[in-house]
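Quick one:
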Amino acid sequence: MTFTRRPSRILIVEDDPVSRSLLKNIFHNEGYQVEEAADGIKGLEKAIADPPDLICLDIILPGLSGYEVCRSVKQDKSGASIPILMITSLTKREDIVKGLKSGATDYITKPFSPVEVLARVKVNLDHRFAVKQLLERSGRFELACDVLETTTSSLELKQVLYHLVSKTAEFLDCERCSIISVEGNWGDEGDIPVGRLLVSHDDPNVPELKIDLIKYPEILKSFRTGEVVIVEDVLNDPLMEEVKEKILDLPFRSVMALPLAFRGEILGAMLLRATRADTGFSEEEIIMARIIAGASTNALRNAALYERLTRKNEALERMNEELSIANHELENLSQAKSDFVSMVSHELRTPLTSIIGFSELLAEAHIGELTDEQDEYIRQILRKGKDLLALINDLLDAGRLETGKLAMRYQEVKLENALLAVRSSTRHVTESLPIINTHIPADLPTFEGDADKITQILTNLVTNALKFSPSGSPVDIIASKIRGRRESDRGDLIQISVKDRGIGIREEDRQRIFDQFVQVQQGSSRSFQGAGLGLYICRSFVELHGGKIWVESTLGEGSTFHFTIPIKQS
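Output:
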């Protein structure tokens, strides 16, 4: 049977009389019935009072805007299914999106082409007509709607597909309904992919069989055209001429082949066979077959995606397991390294303390006068011993920072006391007595901090300044109280700067020098050995206090390291 369609009624809501008249003539010439409204209020009244089949709606209207009319129509039960085609001069993407969100099903920008308007109108009316007829046949197709829902309720591909072909055969009174997948790419006529029978409604246990698609010209034609192919009489249709002898004894006379495609990619085909040669397939049945074919396409696509996701998840799980094992091994290695460094460092500190202590006694002539040569040797031993002790301390601190086991002991810190310790710790860094100038305001307040770590920050910075500066060059330590400017600052700050007249630091190196194990090798700096931990520890200690550290430098003129410490810790 076929459906009869009365002439469709179109409501034009447009305030511009020229555009309204043009649209009216376009639709009249195609046999549509037309009604008009010149503003949003009248347009809404007509749409609700006597719902049309389609509304052509301008956005900019007097009374009510097109957006408001669209929303109101869609909120009304009688207008919810009416397709709304917005025809507007607004071309911005946000205007179009707003229209679609308001409930419009399509849009055309002005100036419009009559051909495009008619094409869009036909597509929307055909869609509404198909949906409406399906709803009107709800008694017959209610079960079919349930079938469509099953495609999203399960990822068991064969279960879903068998349910679809069984119900399709029942609805369309077919002797056989099958779904065939395609292996390989579909190209031109000479490139025939391999087919595989997935399910057939007449045998729930049918095995997956390879199929020579050359024997199915109706399927190949559906692949080439992308359209439904219907053969009403297989014995008399030229398409089936080459295979007619092979199907003479088969109990069917009509065939329908529907391509299952997603974005141009052929996934397979649905094949229906019926005994009726006189009536063929009705428009209603073709529509139903299209819908179920679409559901089958979704099922195939979902199953393929699910299979891919499953494989990827399994691969990810294997990778995660391997990473977990590797991380565990790395943690063990890291712990072993930390334990080893800690043990070796502690074992080295004891003899080093003795070496440094006795060297200081000899250097200060507490046990007798030394010759100049002996004095030089002792001071070399003392300098290298202190360098080694500083390296051991840095390694221990770096290990504690990595493991988060570094304790902070906050107390009131007086900068002058820390500077005394710095002078004592750095007096043997260079061959001659270091020149350290301090510029500390008399009213500089005390601040909360870990005194040992503040001293170590300053010691590391002053040691670097002395090592990387010419012999006899002074180092300046400047301190001041400043107001916090960052969101993270918890009040006023103490800013301390260590300035030298050394070789300077290249701009590209100024950030990375605060990273672990980084040594900038340039100029005379190559003669100074170290593990590259001093500035990393400085940055870490400053940040533990809630402060910030940075450097300003000019090549050949020197560097100034600045850091801040909050006066009050939270």
